Amino acid sequence: MTAKRRHERDRALIRKRRRDRARQRTRVMSPASLRGASDPNDKWLDFWDLGDMHGIRYSRSYIRILCERGDFPKPFKLSPRKLVWRNSQIVAWKAHAELAAAE
User: Residue 12: CB partners within 8 Å, gap ≥ 6?
Assistant: First the structure.
């Protein structure tokens, strides 16, 4: 095998690994896997509902940073561009944040 062919093969493997990693990061939740809520009436909130219902006025990028640090509930992906949170998780997070601020 020539050096050029080996190089092309290696580049193809690298592209495949990158695609696989990107697919893992953008795994979309199926409706069946989202049904595990403890309360069947628990609402799903999108980014705009966080501000409208709970007064959380953070930018999308700051919420992502908080989620990565573990300081905000992790969202569920309904599609590659749609993130939602459970209302019960946001209420619990707000209560915890208020207790921490009071101390």
Answer: none
pTM, rounded to two decimals: 0.60
Eight-state DSSP code of residue 40: T
Q: For residue range 1-37, what is the model confidence (pLDDT) as tens digits? A: 788 888 888 888 888 888 877 666 555 555 555 555 5
Q: In this structure, are residues 89 and 95 in contact, taking their beta carbons and an 8 Å threshold?
A: no
Q: Which two tokens stand for residue 15?
A: 């592209």
CA distance linking residue 18 with residue 15, whole number of Å: 5
pLDDT digits (tens, 9 = 90+) for 65-80: 999 999 999 999 888 8
DSSP conformation class of 33: G
The tokens for 46 are 């999108």
49 three-class SS: helix
What amino acid is encoded at 41 in this protein?
N
